[in-house]
Amino acid sequence: MLLYIKRWLKAPAQLEDGSLIGRNKGTPQGGVISPLLANIFLHHVFDEWMRVSYPKLLFSRYADDIIVHCRTKAQAKVILKAIERRLARCKLQLHPEKTKIVYCKDTKRPESYQHESFDFLGYTFRSRLCKGRSCFVGFTPAVSQSAIKAMSSTIRGWKLRLWSFASLEEVARQINPVIRGWLNYYGKFYRSALYPILRQIQNALVRWAMRKYKKLKGHWRRATHWLGRIARRDPRLFASWGFGFRPSVGQ
Fold first, then answer.
1. d(CA 190, CA 143)
2. What letters, b where the CB count within 10 A reaches 16 and e where it falls short, cover 5-29?
3. Which of 90, 109, 155, 239 could pair with 180 as two cysteines, CB 3.0-4.6 Å apart?
4. What is the pLDDT along the chain (251 residues), one digit of tens a residue?
């Protein structure tokens, strides 16, 4: 096993023109083996070290993104210094801009702090108004603005208004797998944060309908109501409709 790892670490990088560049450390950026080797390394450098050194502390790690849960600010500072020393011994260092202590502000923790939110795996964790038996402020996740921006860019890239050659069912078959993936992942928490994306999808379908059918050309409301009637007959045609975001049927 070690022999194979050494070979990967020493293997030259090939450029687009076919030339080779020798390397003496690390794994190539974008290399297929890089994530696997990084995870193996961090498992021993961080995961096992935390389990032995701080068995009562909870932490989450995905690749090189890590969250450690502390009870107090003083404890967080101590743990941060310990992690810095541990990584330094293993010839690693924390990212100076991304590494920070975050205060999980909610109803039970009403104080203020410099950092009161963080992003992790496409979610933004921060204080939000929540509903239970009564309204309260909780520290909860919702889809991040960077994820919203990426999804919005994908929708614009589809250029659905130009798909006049396709039927509505064909449009649904093409885009549903992507939309369903978004909803299954980002729709687990604070579903209303996805409404801007669902509205953008709906508006794209309205523009498609106005370009597809002469009777709907230039009539936004009429096209919206036309889609609404189809959604009432077939509420799961589009994943966004099944999610509960459907166009209005009008009067």
1. 8
2. eeebeeeeeeeeeeeeeeeeeebbe
3. 239
4. 556 666 766 777 777 777 777 766 666 666 677 788 888 889 999 999 999 999 999 999 998 899 999 999 999 999 999 999 999 999 899 999 999 999 999 999 999 999 999 999 999 999 998 887 888 899 999 999 999 999 999 999 999 999 999 999 999 999 999 999 999 999 999 999 999 999 999 999 999 999 999 999 999 999 999 999 999 999 999 999 999 999 987 65
